[in-house]
Amino acid sequence: MAKIQMKTPLVEMDGDEMTRIIWKMIKEQLLFPYIDLKTEYYDLGLENRDRTDDRVTVESAEATKKYGVAVKCATITPNAQRVEEYKLKEMWKSPNGTIRAILDGTVFRAPILVRGIEPFVSTWKKPITIARHAYGDVYKASETVAPKGARAEIVVTDENGTEMRTLIHDFASGAGIVQGMHNIDGSIESFARSCFNYALSTGQDLWFATKDTISKKYDHRFKDIFAEIYEAEYKAKFKEKGIEYFYTLIDDAVARVIRSEGGFIWACKNYDGDVMSDMVATAFGSLAMMTSVLVSPDGIYEYEAAHGTVQRHYYAHLKGQQTSTNSMATLFAWTGALRKRGELDGIEELSAFADKLETAAIRTIEDGVMTKDLFLLSKAENKRAVDTEAFILAVRDNLEKLL
Distance from the CA of 4 to the CA of which of 14, 34, 153, 267 falls in 20 to 30 A? Predict the structure, then answer.
């Protein structure tokens, strides 16, 4: 077949370790033979981020704003051990956090459902999408150690120099720790609109949950902003679409989620979304089977895998050992970006190709060919575990049959 032609490039953000190896395999085996792939390439590997003083991360986010669609490989967020291992100039911030802040986006994560891999929660029949606020809270917090005898306060100084002070704790009896978090109304408003728009576009109910009974100012602000925007801008649209928005406490939401059959969007604050998306992914089968897309309020999309760089498999790969790494989430990042590029540019062939590639990948697993992580979970008959590259080649065989 003639290669599918693209009009506008995707922003391509390469990454680290085993996912970087998989990234190359996917392009060579599943994309280059079928698409005249156009990308604006940025190397977000840790060495290049260090070499460019992390400027490359900012440049990739700005390019995403320009072109509208990006696809990102998993990247390392360095800790002290990684700083030593890679001889870094400093402990660079999370690339995901930087990109999310620049795009002012919300992260939507949903599991990839495959026949033969049953959710651990027996009531779940449909995907549960986690909408994670991608700004502030713990991820932009300031923290310090408070010595015995210290007094910690929140001090807010207005534009006229007037101070407002709130006692956090008097450490008279012993030392402790202090953390200061923040968020901004504008980001919360963007979060709310992204969630409402995504619910309308997918035709799913939207739940939002915080702990406003305990956090009467911080969490309550989220609740109020969501309610105000819903009433003013989205209530009629939701009614017309036949979907529902409701707010509940985070602990009540957890209980409702476990008893539900799925098929809705669960909007969470930053930390809650971080934790709950991993919980939902694992309960559906595997974190490697979780899609992730960052959506800005003005319609910019960045697709990525929800998992990390698979460090243990990468070290085995460097030793020449065989690995069996699940590439599904990385593959679906590519298909999501290609589908969206096709939709925005009016290239039906490109969107259809993305659909067929996803179908081929799912069919491969349902036919019994899968990586070791899924082999342990699957109830498929005649299943067999294959290595990283063999799985991708099996997907290509199924793709050929669909084209």
Answer: 14
Q: What is the pTM of this model?
A: 0.88
Alpha-carbon gap, residue 185 to 203, rounded angstroms: 27
Q: Over the stretch 189-225, which tens digit does the pLDDT of each residue have?
A: 999 999 999 999 899 999 999 999 999 999 999 999 9
Q: Please, is 306 exposed, middle or buried when counting C-beta atoms within 10 Å of its C-beta (0-12, 13-18, 19+)?
A: buried
Query: What digits encode the pLDDT tens for the residues 250-270?
Result: 999 999 999 999 999 999 999
Q: Are 219 and 212 in contact (CB under 8 A)?
A: yes
Report the b/e string of 48-67 with b at 16+ CB within 10 A.
bbbeeebebbbebbebbeeb
- Please check whether residue 248 is in contact with residue 205, taking contact to mean a CB–CB distance below 8 angstroms: no
Rg for the chain, CA atoms, rounded:
22
Helix or strand holding residue 255 (H, E): helix 250-259
Amino acid at 202: T
Residue 152 DSSP SS3: strand
* CB-count burial class (<10 Å; 0-12, 13-18, 19+) for 370: buried
